[in-house]
Inverse folding.
């Protein structure tokens, strides 16, 4: 037992490196994880604040809202209301994990297992990330975005750029393609379009009209042809991606403003999978760090002291307050995700009769690693919960479902963790994690490009729930700013 | 495969640009908050970092969100069932109370007020926003002998050492392009073609002649369109600029006779502090000279100035004399900007006011950038002397000085809340002040 990786809580680079290699050994050989190359960075607390005030990206364009987050987080941190995150990890290749310099060595080990292997494996393998995010390109794109926005600020002034960014940020959640990739016009089409545009401009110019005395209007020029004739054709209505639609069709935006919208839209799209994968992502990372730390301890590589320290931190991470607790703020994704994955392992190894009933495909088969890896690769929060949440876990969490109607003064308990309620509770919880259902469903239904250029939006209400009125007005203001003309939003019952 | 990177030594303040944008964005709220938080606080503290609490109004980031409270229906799952059975009902929490935390998850980000720390620099920026040193430019031009050379664009004439190569070559290039000066490559090509033509077996005389002519033309053109022409040449130009003196001395004059109580001194102190801070932001170096007087004047340190009391009559002119004496000995006008602030309750020995006016008019005002006279009254007197024209002897005498000199100001203060507005008024940025 003499060869502990570390004994003291102080760390240095040699120790981190040694520990990293031990963790890597377990992650790759025992757990057979598949990860991007790792880049591990040690940062100070101020840099950590920096990191998560600019939505956890190391490179980001400048905007006041990031400054606001920083000021708020800093005040919270200085007052001791909130501790800093132990780690931040970025879905890129190489996968960048930040370690806070104040962490003890045990915490550094935990964080490396959690971020550099848990999150990293998940980023590389989950189908949503694979389909939607370009891990190799994101850093370059952010560098471009930062430079572009800075250049715009220099050229057009801070206020102008800020206004566009403000408006675009307000639409970030309506700036993603949920079901399809953005249509990409073919190159020939682009060239053809440009040619037609130039042709039209030449054709519409007539030297004669300049000689008319002022006050005499030239006869109405040939109507402006739909330069974007793809309108109604290629750009099919309704369109759910508001930012995309405005970027392509707004009558008033300048080229740099369109590009700015595109940047915000691309970022929104980059983060969209993360919003659908909170539970799984954190669950996967937590499960991986728990398993790895366990193996390190079993193999006599870490001391009992650091084992206790790890358990202390682990249990507080996966703590789930009850709904009546003052600390309650929704389900803790770490707790739910870790709980479910741990439960899958239990079902694979020691199933009860109930488990065999519910999960005949893998109960008692023993291959928990394979089952989990399959889940990590092919599910998102909603489908994962719908598929894998077991009755035992619902009992452990003591889950119950409430039915709420706005015009009633009381909630009704509609299902609890009993035989009659398992399936209902599970489905409702899954729906709760369906980002598509949690975000208001807003679409562009039409735009009067030939007339007064009004933009028509619709909100398809789900079960009669309307938009919050005050924020609706504010956001509509932003849309009008981008669109340049009237915007009408109709809320309709689905 | 793995890289460890130590980022701790990376430059700090990466988010500074965002912070500035945020402060600018929330400027109005911050200004209000700063002034509120400073209004009653000890002025001595305004040079410190300070917590500022602002509302999120104006810095909100609206998003579309659902409002299940207003209408419609929904289901949601909670952890921690106690003993509810299906069909039970739970009363909804009264609005405003976090119903088991559910509201927090509905609305996402809380929209509460929030508190953050602003640095001294940032606070003073807002504090002294729009304030300007009066008459700075005019007097410094008159007074300061310090000058330095400063870039002043490009000229067509100058000494050869100041030639601006980039501009010169750009002009030359443009001119050569415009006049179609053949390049050496063009000439070489012509020569080659000529050589080739001459070596062809049936010699095409006409072509050779044509080529020869072309070549001669090209060579000639290269001669008369010169590579660099005098009209291309540009020079960096410099002009001499006066440098404002970057140090200032501030004379604080105060009557400490029996009639000035703690309250009066405290008010005076606040005013001096403000002035000191303000000057510190404008000058690299600020000296402060404290002169207290009763029937005679002494230079003292800050502690004595504010906290010791003397008995005796009141002769204001002694303080002015002392100030002149110190100024002559230590603060030459060539090197120092001179500011003076005098606080008094307005009483002086009869006849002394006239001496003061004379001294001010003839000796002191020509030296000073600015002279502020603050008369500290109690609130009852303030009502009596509501009009600027009425007042004690010293006040009336000083009014005549103020009429004569722009950079002489008189104000009355009765309570702490008056100080800042008066201060702002004294130093308001004016068009004249800029001139």
């Amino acid at each position: 037992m003499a060869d502990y990786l570390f004994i003291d809580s102080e760390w240095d680079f040699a120790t981190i490196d040694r520990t990293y290699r031990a963790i890597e050994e377990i992650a790759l050989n025992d757990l057979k994880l598949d990860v991007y190359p790792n880049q591990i960075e040690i940062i100070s607390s101020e840099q950590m604040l920096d990191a998560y005030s600019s939505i956890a990206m190391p490179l980001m364009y400048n905007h006041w809202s990031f400054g606001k987050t920083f000021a708020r987080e800093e005040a919270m941190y200085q007052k001791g209301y909130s501790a800093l995150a132990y780690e931040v990890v970025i879905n890129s290749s190489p996968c960048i994990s930040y370690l806070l310099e104040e962490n003890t060595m045990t915490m550094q080990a935990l964080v490396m297992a959690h971020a550099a292997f848990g999150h990293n494996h998940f980023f590389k393998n989950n189908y949503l990330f694979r389909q939607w995010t370009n891990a190799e390109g994101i850093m370059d794109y952010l560098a471009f975005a930062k430079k572009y926005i800075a250049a715009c600020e220099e050229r057009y002034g801070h206020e102008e750029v800020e206004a566009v960014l403000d408006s675009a940020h307000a639409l970030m959640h309506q700036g993603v393609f949920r079901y399809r990739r953005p249509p990409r016009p073919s190159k020939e089409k682009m060239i053809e379009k440009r040619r037609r545009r130039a042709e039209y401009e030449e054709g519409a110019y007539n030297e004669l009209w300049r000689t008319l005395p002022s006050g005499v209007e030239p006869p109405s020029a040939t109507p402006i042809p739909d330069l974007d004739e793809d309108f109604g054709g290629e750009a099919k209505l309704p369109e759910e991606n508001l930012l995309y639609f405005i970027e392509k069709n707004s009558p008033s935006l300048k080229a740099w403003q369109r590009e700015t919208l595109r940047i915000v839209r691309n970022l929104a799209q980059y983060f969209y999978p993360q919003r659908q994968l909170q539970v799984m992502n954190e669950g996967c990372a937590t499960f991986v760090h728990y398993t790895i730390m366990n193996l390190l301890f079993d193999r006599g590589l870490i001391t009992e002291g650091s084992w206790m320290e790890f358990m202390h931190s682990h249990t507080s991470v996966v703590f789930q307050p009850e709904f009546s607790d003052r600390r309650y703020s929704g389900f803790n994704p770490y707790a739910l995700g870790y709980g479910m994955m741990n439960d899958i392992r239990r079902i694979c190894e020691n199933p009860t009769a109930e488990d065999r009933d519910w999960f005949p495909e893998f109960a008692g088969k023993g291959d928990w690693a394979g089952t989990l890896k399959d889940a990590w690769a092919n599910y998102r929060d909603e489908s994962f919960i719908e598929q894998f949440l077991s009755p035992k876990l619902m009992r452990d969490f003591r889950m119950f479902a409430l039915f709420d109607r706005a015009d009633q003064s009381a909630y009704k308990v509609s299902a609890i963790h009993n035989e009659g309620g398992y399936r209902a509770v599970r489905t409702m919880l899954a729906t709760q994690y369906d980002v598509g259902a949690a975000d208001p469903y807003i679409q562009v239904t039409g735009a009067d490009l030939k007339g007064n250029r009004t933009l028509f939006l619709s909100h398809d209400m789900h079960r009669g729930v309307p938009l919050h009125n005050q924020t609706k007005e504010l956001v509509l203001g932003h849309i009008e700013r981008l669109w340049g003309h009237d915007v009408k939003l109709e809320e309709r019952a689905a | 495969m793995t890289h460890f990177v130590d980022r701790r030594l990376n430059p700090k303040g990466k988010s500074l640009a965002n912070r500035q944008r945020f402060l600018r964005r929330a400027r109005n709220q911050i200004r209000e908050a700063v002034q509120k938080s400073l209004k009653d606080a000890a002025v001595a503290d305004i040079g410190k970092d300070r917590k500022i609490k602002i509302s999120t109004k104006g810095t909100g980031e609206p998003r579309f969100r659902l409002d299940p409270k207003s209408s419609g229906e929904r289901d949601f799952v909670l952890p921690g069932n106690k003993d509810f059975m299906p069909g039970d009902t739970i009363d909804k929490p009264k609005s405003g109370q976090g119903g088991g935390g559910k509201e927090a998850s509905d609305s996402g980000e809380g929209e509460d007020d929030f508190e953050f720390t602003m640095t001294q620099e940032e606070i003073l920026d807002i504090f002294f926003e729009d304030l300007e040193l009066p008459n700075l430019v005019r007097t410094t031009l008159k007074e300061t002998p310090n000058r330095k050379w400063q870039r002043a664009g490009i000229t067509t004439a100058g000494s050869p050492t100041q030639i601006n190569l980039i501009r010169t070559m750009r002009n030359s290039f443009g001119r050569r392009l415009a006049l179609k000066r053949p390049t050496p490559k063009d000439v070489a090509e012509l020569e080659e073609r000529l050589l080739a033509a001459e070596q062809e077996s049936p010699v095409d005389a006409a072509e050779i002649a044509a080529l020869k002519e072309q070549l001669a033309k090209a060579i000639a053109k290269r001669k008369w369109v010169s590579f660099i022409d005098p009209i291309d040449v540009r020079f960096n130009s410099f002009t001499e600029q006066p440098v404002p003196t970057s140090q200032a001395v501030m004379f604080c004059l105060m009557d400490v006779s029996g009639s000035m109580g703690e309250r009066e001194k405290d008010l005076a102190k606040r005013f001096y502090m403000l002035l000191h801070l303000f000057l510190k932001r404008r000058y690299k170096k600020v000296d402060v000279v404290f002169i207290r007087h009763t029937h005679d004047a002494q230079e003292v340190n800050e502690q004595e100035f504010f906290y010791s009391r003397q008995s005796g009559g009141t002769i204001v002119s002694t303080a002015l004399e002392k100030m002149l004496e110190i100024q002559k000995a230590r603060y030459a006008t060539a090197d120092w900007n001179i500011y003076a602030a005098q606080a008094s309750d307005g009483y002086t020995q009869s006849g002394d006011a006239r001496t003061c006016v004379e001294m001010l008019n003839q000796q002191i005002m020509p030296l000073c950038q600015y002279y502020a006279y603050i008369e500290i009254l109690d609130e009852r007197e303030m009502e009596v002397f509501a009009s600027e024209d009425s007042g004690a002897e010293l006040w009336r005498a000083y009014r005549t000085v103020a009429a004569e000199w722009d950079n002489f100001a008189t104000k009355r203060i009765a309570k702490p809340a008056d100080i800042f507005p008066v201060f702002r008024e004294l130093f308001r940025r004016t068009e004249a002040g800029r001139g």
About this structure: Residues 96-111, 135-143, 431-435 of chain B have pLDDT under 50 and may be disordered.
